[in-house]
Amino acid sequence: MLLKKTLLLIALLAPWLFASAHDYQAGELHIEHPWSREMPPVAPTAAVYFVVHNKGSQADRLLGAQTPVAGKAEFHEHLHADGLMKMQQVQTVDIPAGGEVRFAPMAYHVMLFDLKRQLQDGERFPLTLTFEKAGAVQVGVTVQKEPQADDAAHQH
Ligand SMILES: [Cu+2]
Asked: How far, in Å, is the centroid of ligand 1 from the Cα of 149?
């Protein structure tokens, strides 16, 4: 009896407990916790982060991203060159078989240009990611003030 009640309680609480840890499936790919940091109202750009796990035996490749909230979305990587840190556009991102690629601050990110409005803490906006093999998948990007919830979500 007690066990049943406990399970029921967990089932009821789970959506709130894991509200920030959302994920998506596209074929053999698993896309974990897409998020973006809230930017000041005047900021013309924002960045989107997530982790792509490839559970399959074939490599895949991220070819493009699109969202209705921005005029343009590009893949960027961070580089250290001559003691400086800069970011530069990459056309595609390889997702190795059985591996994972982390889009995170100071690493790969999806850069959004020509934002049509401020993205605010707590909202979720759609982003379509197109993969060479897995095809197109729409994910929901959660806007957060801080990255902590994301870090916590990955401690497993
Ligand atoms: Cu960038």
From this structure: 21
